[in-house]
Amino acid sequence: MKRPVFAATRESASPGEPPSKQSSASSSQTTATLQWPRSRGVGVILDWVPAHFPRDPHDLVYFDGTHLYEHADPRQREHPDWDTPIFNYGRHEVANVLLDSALFWLDRFHADSLRVVASRATG
């Protein structure tokens, strides 16, 4: 029997509805959001974006003083549509961090599946 699928939304929740998704939700808020459908027998699929990574105070650009995760060649380093760094999939470090990331989301938040988003941008 197939289970229905839940997608968190940014709209505010009414009583009896799941908590709303917040762009900077804490771990406990994310857990609560994902446990609501699971407690009702609904499967949870998370969007996961391994194509590029954001520029923020915790970003991976020039992480160790080298281009460890992104391309060293400036022509390959940025995604032209999103102005974000692109992972260099030829590096073992990138494969390791992406695998760890996927496993973290599945393990920590007990998701049933990951949907790879922007997969066409991965090359």
Overall description:
By secondary structure, this protein is of the alpha/beta class. It has helices at 27-38, 74-77, 92-108; strands at residues 5-6, 43-48, 113-116. Strands 1-2-3 form a 3-stranded parallel β-sheet.
The share of residues in extended strands comes to 5-15%
Distance between the termini: 36 Å
Binned, the helix content reads 25-40%
Low-confidence stretches: 8-22
Q: How many β-strands, per DSSP? A: 3
The radius of gyration computed from the alpha-carbon positions, rounded to a whole number of angstroms, is: 17 Å
Mean pLDDT, rounded to whole units?
75
The strand order across the widest sheet is 1-2-3
Shape: elongated
Largest sheet: 3 strands, parallel
Number of helices: 3
SSE class: alpha/beta
The sequence of SSEs as H and E is: EHEHHE
Which descriptors apply to this entry?
3 strands, about 25% helix, 3 helices, about 120 residues, three-stranded parallel sheet, alpha/beta, about 10% strand
Topology of this protein?
Layout: E1 5-6, H1 27-38, E2 43-48, H2 74-77, H3 92-108, E3 113-116
Parallel strand pairs: 1-2, 2-3
Describe this structure in a few short sentences:
With 123 residues, this protein is of the alpha/beta class. It has three helices and three strands.
